[in-house]
Amino acid sequence: MTATVAGLDSVTNDQVTAARATWAAFRRNPLGMISVGILVLLVIVAACAPLIAAYPTGYGDQVLQAPSGAHWFGTDNLGRDIFAEVVWGARLSIVIAALSSALAIAIGVVVAVLGAYFPKVDSIVGTVVDLCLSLPVLPLMILVAALAGPSLVTLVLVIAFFSWPEVTRVVRSQALSVVRLPYMDAARLTGGSSIWIIRKHLLPAVAPVIVVSVVLTASRAVLSAAGLAFLGLGDPTSWSWGRILYEAQQSGAMQSAWWTTLFPSLAMLALVVSATLISIAYNDARNPRARED
Amino acid sequence: MRLRQSLIAVAAVVAVSAVTACSPSAPDKADDAAGSGTTLTIATTTDVVNFNPLVGNSRTDNWITSLMYPRLLSISADGQKSPLLAKDYGFTNPTTAFWNLRDDMKWSDGQPVTADDVAFTINSILRDKPAGNTTYGQLVNVDSASAPSPTRVELKLKRPDSTVVTEVGFWMNVVPKHVFEPSGNVAKFANDKDWVSAGPYKLTGVAKGQSYTLERVTPYPFAPNNTPVVSKIVYRVYPDINTEILALKNNEVDLIANALPPAQVKNLQNTPGIKVQEIPGLGYAHMTYNMKHPALANLKVRQALSHAVNYDAIRSVVLQGQAVTTGSSPIPPVLKEFADPSSQEYAFDIEKSKQLLAEAGYGPSKPLTLTMIYSLQDAVTSQWANLVKDDAAKAGITINLQGMDRNTYLAKTAAGEYDIYAGNFAIMDDPTTNMALTYLPGGAINYSLVDDPALNSLITQAQGTTDKAAQKQFVQQAATMVRDNVYDNVMYMQNLYVAHSDKWSGFVVKPSELLSVVDPQSLANATKN
């Protein structure tokens, strides 16, 4: 009994050491750190939107004004401040990203782990995932969003529903290699229940892949949400980056007022690029071979 | 060194020629001062869905089919009807109407355009009820049409209807009997090839998603020397108004058929090489309150809503001052014959709105929440819907906006599934007919679902008389009743703007986006400077 406890301690210590080593390696990667900085900044902007700019509502008398001291990002076709729209848009864009990626990850991981752990289920999971991955996602998203009507809930559900197979694919391939390892057999021999083994041994082993998936799914969700909003299938009553683009397109301002499209696009670019770089940096950092380099 | 320079030169020449070879060639635009032999290229945002003008159709369908199938009457910028295929029209008695036709129009296969074609078109619409046909609703009092002579059409009416000649005359496209009759059922006739046109143009080439080519038809009596000036018209399809404007700036097209978004008008007016043409509006934008809703059935609630809208702000900001008030009347001021200049717009008064709401029993303890539907494809309405919501909130009324895809919006409208409906009508050319459709129970566009016996009586009396003065009195009384009871909240009449290259002139301006400068008479007279 004592030996088992000591063994568990050492596993825990190993994990702590690995996490520290990963973090140490991650810190050494300037791109990764800058990306984290950008992401944190965007989250702060989203969280503190009311402190940064007044909610863009109503109208203003300065229609389609180029960026200036009074309006840093210019104004749109109703004279509203685009800086305020981008700031408040960050909020909805990040909420959609967070919620839909959380949902996609939850579904994706559960399906992946069950598939990997129970071989009988795996063939079905594999087929379903392959089938879902071969579907033309964008047209289906448009169809579902159009039928269900534009709202935050619709967007989150639609994006999550079409994002989980990708998560399942990545997590399942990792989980399949983990379930074959001797320590999983050892765990089974100790008489632990399947749920306990999955929770204590399988999930921690695939956690790094999940972390990468979270970041990538979230950034893809931002793009999907913006795409749907641009097509007029976003929530027309709250600000998102996609809605700013949609309104620029609808008002015919795209070809004459570059600022209506540039700034929301830059915001999206910043979020997606930083998310991607973080996942790359994290992958490099947790790979011992990359760390040695 | 010299060798390197030569290589660079050769590379540059190759690159330039490669780029030139890859670029789409510009449409043939021979420089002919009179415009004969030239091509007029027009931008639109949608494809043609129906080539059959008798089936309900989109804007592009209408623009293109109207160039082939003539109307009996046209309409001028002030809403007055003017002769076209019909020389004159009237009533021989209260239940017999007539049109006398001109005899110099021909179909492109050589057959004359006769009264037989007109009577066939009307009888076919009555028999086959083509889906979405506007004229069908206007023929409700018509029993049948006949052609006693090649130039005279007579309508037998079931009951007196003073507006049928002008309304059907303006809205209906006349189709060639010898082409449409063999199909058996005009509602199912695709008419997608071998077109026969009465001019000024005939469709000769269709490249779906890209372009529609039309060639001139002669004789066309409404063009100089019976010949449309430009020999060829090409409608090119663009994804949206942004790309259309770019195409116009790059000289890829000569004219944009779609009305410009209000915020783009000033910008294009200041663009060299581009001329912006004002098109008088003939319709209006409005909100209707669903009278079946228990709260909205209360006049005070409707009044509260009508006072919680900043109409001036909507006109000056969303429409950039390109709209005029109708004095909250459903008769737009452009219809000078009928309009009542004394009609006052609902005042924007939040306090009054709150007070009315309180009198109706609503307030902080019993909040009023309503939904408002509008089409997301309607960019202008989508914008002011937000202003309406914000101002209503100040009066304590919560309006939940439901912007939706156009088809869903139409379905919800038809089913009456809304508290407030926001939208607009392109052409409201005749107050009597429009009020019958808008406010009589069962009317095709009675979106407030109103059924007021006093109002019904006024509208029916207006329909029944051919005396202009009496008719004016009835429709003005009806309009006042609509305004005072907030059966409809008419917000503004928008004047539209279209842009074309300043190399072109001679366009004839007609009201509404449907006709604007792409009306057949206009295009037949357009010339390149």
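qc> Residues 2-22 of chain B form the longest helix (21 residues).
qc> done
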